[in-house]
Amino acid sequence: MKRPNWCPHKDCKFKAQSQEKMCIGELPKLEPHGMGFNTHRLCLDTMETGHGIFDLQVNWGDCWNMIRLLKLTKPECKADSLMEYAYNSKCKTITK
Q: What CA dihedral angle connects 5, 71, 92 and 22, to 10 degrees?
């Protein structure tokens, strides 16, 4: 697997890409973020919608929160709150 050609951030240590529309890599140096540090950059190719490359610097906490939100797209995950969702055993794994 290699960095998509559209990704402008050649300074990141490339980790993975998906569907030629998003990629993630380790930042060359830690970036301050709240009380901690961002460790990775997530890039999304939005050229098809007339926009450029959207990039977001993240850390594990940010990613965990994103995973929790994305899991709510599963039909069996209809929790009224994120805390209820976090403890819903049907939503603990991500499947394709």
A: 0
**Spatial distance between the Cα atoms of 4 and 22, rounded to a whole number of angstroms:** 8
Angle 63-40-17 from CA coordinates, rounded to 5°: 85
**pLDDT by position in tens, the chain (length 96):** 889 988 999 999 999 999 989 999 999 999 998 889 999 999 999 877 778 889 999 999 999 998 888 888 887 776 555 555 455 555 554 443
pTM here is 0.71
Distance of CA 28 to CAs 8, 43, 47, 54, 77, Å? 14, 15, 25, 18, 36
Residues constituting the chain: 96
